[in-house]
Amino acid sequence: MTSTFDQVALLARRSVIRTWRQPAAVVFPLLFPMLLLAVNSGGLRAETHLPGFPTKSFVAFALAVPFIQGALFATMNAGTDLARDIESGFMSRLSLTPLRGAALLAGQLGGVVVLGVIQACFYLLVGLAAGVRPAAGILGVLVLLVFAAFIALAFGAVGAWAALRTGSTEAVQSLFPIFFVFLFISSMNIPRNLMATTWFRYAATANPVSYLLECVRSLVITGWNGQALGLGFAILAIVAAVALSLASYSLRRRLVR
Amino acid sequence: MDRPNTIEVEQLVREFKKGPRAVDGIELHVDSGEIYGFLGPNGAGKSTTVLMLTTLLPPTAGTARVAGYDVVHEGPQVRARIGAALQEAALDPLLTGHEHLRLQAALQAIPRAERGPRADELLQRVGLSEAADRKVRGYSGGMKRRLDLAMALVHRPRVLFLDEPTTGLDVQSRTALWDEVGRLAREDGVTVFLTTQYLEEADVLADRVGIIDHGRIVAEGTPDALKAEIGRPTLEAVPAGEDGRGNLSDLLARFGPLVPSPRGVAVRLEAGEAGLADVVRALDAQGVHVAHLELHSPSLDDVFLAKTGRSLEGHGGE
């Protein structure tokens, strides 16, 4: 029997090849966040003059957003690919091989993680080209890449769970606007302490996405901040644990064999 | 000791929530190296049976053993010995034919050095060598079906399940697939369980046929034996004018039970082929004119009609 590691590698490779052969799936997650970054940096630059704004560079402040948008694309990629496999019967074909359920899930998410890290490298390079210098240095950049991989894993698992639960690409894609709402009601465009509208500040404070953004920002703008890093990684760990458990449960139910 | 490549099913039942019994206590036995045709109309329970026998759907009740192993309790052993091409060709449109076979070979734990040659061999066997490096989304329906069959054969299964493998294929692709399935059974000793909605397919390919309707097997045997059981040929007559249909029906009803005919009136001749002369004499004597008169040997559709009271012709697949 093929080892679990080999099975994961085979399916991760397939996942990467599939994405690579759909140019829209590669180009859109790279360009769309950069366009949004350019527009926001131009339009909201004046925010940097506010007393208490943490940096003089709005690009440095906003660079965290593409990382979270990357999570949305990871969710969509992982979920849509799995749902397509279910709809086309390819999942049934895989079920007839000695493939382990855990390997199927890990392989799919492995491909998403690889693409998530490639996206993060691209965002960082654009940031460096725009003059951003991560305050946490080289080690901070490595932690950022680990964080990006973790984001792809956690949110990819959410997409995988939706796909395995529903078996429908439409259901997976319907998650996109929900995540987008979470992103907009966060500290995406302004630090929480500078939000003038009270209800929005409360909503952003209750929104876990704010802490993911602040984790990235801490490494880019302020340097090592244990609290921001701890909160960011803890939230991802919770999302990943819950989503992976749900996805594993749904996979077991789907692979009743 | 090696277990036999048989399929043994006893009182197999599958009930869906809030639905009828899709499979209602079927029993069947398929011998090693036999091609068993499972024939039935839409919703008869063919695909549900295949899903249970391939371990993809647990039965509600009953037992089934494939290649000597229980489909519920020994799923991994069953899956290691079977290949399956299900109703829809289960392929990834973004991978090439060669990549599909290599992936399948790897997941079936075929040693790395053998994967490429095995993929090449199968692609050649199903006539896809030239298309091996093209993405599957550019394949025709027939090419996808053939690749699906090749994938089911990667690990040299002892029992092969084919769920309506030729539905939607042109005559040439259908014939090519029949040849390959026949060769697998004859030369490699593979047991083949084939569901089909095509009477001709079951007639040409299957050593034995089981006819399923409303989840129950209503007839089983070799195609010749089943047809012999019906025994009597059908005479179909097309009246010369529209107003002659009533007279024609009255006259033919004297020679046996009338059966549905899309073109005119048909009767199953009680006296067999010898009754044809009597019919012609009666038509002449009564002055009933016919535009067309044709004697049909019994077909599997006649068997289906006799067993269920309905015709299988014109039904879609499950």
Structure in words:
The complex is a heterodimer of chains A (257) and B (318). Chain A is an all-alpha fold. Chain A contains twelve helices and no strands. The mean pLDDT of chain A is 90. Chain B is an alpha/beta fold. Chain B folds into two domains: 7-222, P-loop containing nucleotide triphosphate hydrolases (Rossmann fold, 3-Layer(aba) Sandwich), CATH 3.40.50; 232-297, Alpha-Beta Plaits (2-Layer Sandwich), CATH 3.30.70.260. Chains A and B meet through helix 1 and helix 5 of A and helix 2, strand 6 and helix 3 of B.
Strand content of chain A: under 5%
- State the major sheet of chain A: none
- What is the chains' assembly state? heterodimer
Strand content of chain B: 15-25%
Strand order of the largest sheet of chain B: 6-7-8-3-9-10
- Give the tally of structural domains of chain A: 1
Backbone structural class of chain A: mainly alpha
Q: Uncertain regions of chain B: pLDDT < 50 for 5+ in a row?
A: none
Question: What is the helix content of chain A?
Answer: over 70%
Q: Which two chains touch over the largest interface?
A: A-B, 24 and 31 residues
What is the SS-derived class of chain B?
Answer: alpha/beta
CATH topology of the largest domain in chain B: Rossmann fold
* Strand element count of chain B: 14
- In CATH terms, the superfamily of the largest domain in chain B is P-loop containing nucleotide triphosphate hydrolases
